[in-house]
Amino acid sequence: MLNILYLSLLTMLSPFILWRMVRHGRYRRGLGEKLLGRLTAPRDSKPVAWFHAVSVGEVIQLQKIVKEFRQQSGNQYSILITTSTDTGFDLARQRFSDCLVTWFPLDFSWAVSNAVQTVRPALVCLMELELWPNFLSECESRGIPVAVVNARLSERSHRRYQRVSSLLNPMFASLDLVAAQSAANGERLLSLGVRPERMKTTGSIKFDGVETQRSNSKTKALRMLFGLQDSDLVLVAGSTQDPEETLILDCWQSLRSTCPALRLILVPRHKERFDEVASLVAGRGLTVVRRSEQDASRPAALASDSVGLLDTIGELGACWGLADIAFVGGSFGNRGGQNMIEPAAYGAAVMFGPNTWNFRDVVQIFKEADACRQLKSPEELLPVLEHLLNSEPARRALGHKAQHTVLHHQGATSTTAGLLLQLLTPLATTRKAA
Prior knowledge:
The chain is an alpha/beta fold.
């Protein structure tokens, strides 16, 4: 029945999928792996730990888990990394150059059966909440433990899931470990069928492993490429979506006459919009300084009439280190916000809009520490920016509180890796006895 449902959905969506394949080059790669489960298993004799991350954000967080898992396990396992999106796959190839990286199969019964049969993992670890019924059923039938780490479920998604909870209950009950970001997330997942003894609250691994030093080599390289000076005040608007670039540009143009040292760098969330945002800036008679066009031999210099555009993948984390003030995008749109921990870790004065349900627990932590500014509407953007620019003590105090909050909440990665190894204890014991 699931196969029929998936095929029906695929048929209905095929015109849209084909259009994106032609227009943006999406979905073309990994068709054999996705549709038929033709994965490749690691070639050494070690048992395989299969880690899955959907896209860019999850891949970045997964890097911390895999590194800690390897350290705690003594590198006894081969690591297989799968992802689902083009950008996620490209970044995984960069971040996991010493691991086998491939595509996650679509949830057709034949695809997941072929994939699991080929890989024969000792453990499957899924980031956040990427659950597929056929895949989980296949793992359960073969006795393969499945863990969900850094798990979260928003209140809105929880309400939707509850409507079909009787159908989802067996899927959630089959999970061997759920490491939740917070107690509230854990309670929502328990209500959907996760077994209490398999639920652990570890905190968010997003707080772990984040860079806190602005003097790191990647941030220094970006500072040089954009020609930034120590006297510049830098506003970075990252992970933005339409119309956030327009809102930020309006504010920047209003403020630059009274604050000529103010520099702006825009970082759209999706690479498909890089050219669109560049045209938006150029259409205002401003110079666009694109990161992709800069190199060390001829760095540009951001000026009062130019805007930086970070049009590369995987460099936003380092770019936040340039920010005196950071606007975290996706929060005035419909995406539910983006990761505000990275700019906070550098001690930037962090601000974002009202729509942050994807990071509800993280936002609550920052708000309780008075370590952020959450805006209720776009109209608040200009006066809050103006205040932070005009009051250096207020700006520095907000950034200091943000960085302190990040440091205070670290430790989830080590705990999570330890829990994963506990799932593998029976395997380790069997191998030792053999």
